[in-house]
Amino acid sequence: MPRRKKPHAPPATLGELRASGYQSRSLRDEIRANLSERIAAGDELFPGILGYETTTIPEIENALMSGQDMIILGERGQAKSRMVRAITGLLDERVPVIKGSEINDDPCAPISRAGIDLVTEQGDDTPVEWLAREDRYGEKLATPDITMAELLGDVDPIKVAEGRYLSDELTIHYGLIPRTNRGVFCINELPDLPERIQVGLFNLMEERDIQIKGYRVRMPLDILIVGTANPEDYTNRGRIITPLKDRYGAQVRTHYPERINDELKIAEQERSHYDASEERVHVPPYMAEVIGEITSLARRSPEVNQRSGVSVRMTIANLETARASALRRALRLKEEMASIRVSDMSGLIASTRGKLELETIEEGRENDVVEDLIKRAVLEVFDRNFHSDELDGVVASFDPGTTVEAGQDLPSDEYVNAASRVIGLGPVLRRLEADDKPHEVASAVEFVLEGLHLNRRLNRDSAGGRVTYREKQRPRSLREGMDIRLEDLGFDVNDVPGADPGDDPGPPRRRRRPRDSE
């Protein structure tokens, strides 16, 4: 039996690395080359990032092609951190480093004192290990209590206790930024970084050398520094000082999805997925559109603080909540399938309430605002699907004795029976692609009837967690209302001076009340 060949092992020493023909290149050259190759091949550069194809992503590509550090500026929930992490996908799959190096020294060009000494002593026998691209990323959330030691480094007292002199560079314990050498480092919420710490980054950003506890450590760090910030932070919590901002080559702006379809794709991608129940819950396209429209309306509502923003996380949470409500109903009613209904939207109050910052501080106002957003979203989506006069036949079917009951706990078969009693509803359901499955019929019936109610074509009564749709009563004319109490009001329609008995008496006249003197 032939012996299986062992996979080719990567070089393990500096000598083997040189013999393999390896050529060192800088981080920016590496990113630029890989980015150019992927653009030319038409590959997706930032997987999972939707809605930025013609806006934010081209700006990031230009900054990377230019080798610039950048600030990504945007409101909460706009995928800033995810885009920064995605930059590591443009790095080589793995790169060689000196084994045991604290700052990922390149074996062919070490920059730390420990790395230089090791290569000088061992030469081609210097041990080499390989660093994966995902290990070349570091980040730090800026907080007011952050120190220079965390970012750049400090003197290690243990090394001093072992007998090293304070003047020895080997006593330094490097911080997060030097330890991400030859990689990407992100400072999240950059305006929260104290100004004295921002000043400490000047040399790092421009000259690429750092100073630790009085040591002037000249290390040409090969690192891409990215900062993220929320525009609101510039005035409320802090600011990026001008000299530091000037050292960033590019400032990239993000935004919320410009189209509801993009919002819904993001929500479907990011929501929690449970294999056991995925196939049991159906989300009709019009109900998904309602969920996306709620967020879209909130971003334009004068009741909501627009400086704070309305995150895509609200759409994600609302989609999860609506699916959970539908599944809960299916379990309780012993139904195999469930579709999201308009009646499930009441459950979105809990998942929406904490994600909106209102302009008013009135107690309990959140529920009213959310309920209004839900109603307006249903109305908007209904009006995009139907013209009100298209459903005249459905409205006409609601004679004084016809009613349709709806509710979150109502079985789907009840809606099928109701649909058969309402003339003209069949073609409408087929238009919504909901004419053959009971759970889809239930969702479509609720959507159509609620849309007609919001258009003031039907009346709706609520009681005990259920609603009843009925005929919209025709308002009585003014004359009808007056004829009820003519005598009480002092009118006499038959006593009109100069009129023949057969003539139209015209508008009733009011009798003059006699004066006291008369």
Protein architecture, described:
The structure is a single chain. Helix 13 packs across helix 14 (285-298) and helix 17 crosses helix 21 (438-454). The N and C termini lie far apart (135 Å). The protein is elongated, with a radius of gyration of 35 Å. The protein has 23 helices and 16 strands. With 518 residues, it is an alpha/beta fold.
Features:
alpha/beta, 16 strands, 518 residues, single chain, three-stranded antiparallel β-sheet, five-stranded parallel β-sheet
What's the end-to-end separation, in Å? 135 Å
The largest sheet has its strands arranged as 4-7-10-1-11
E-strand count: 16
Report on the biggest sheet. Answer: 5 strands, parallel
Choose one word for the global shape: elongated
Q: Uncertain runs with pLDDT below 50, 5 residues or more? A: 507-511
SS summary, helix count: 23
Share of residues in helices: 25-40%
Radius of gyration: 35 Å
* Class based on secondary structure composition and strand pairing: alpha/beta
β-sheet strand percentage: 5-15%
Q: Mean pLDDT, nearest integer?
A: 86
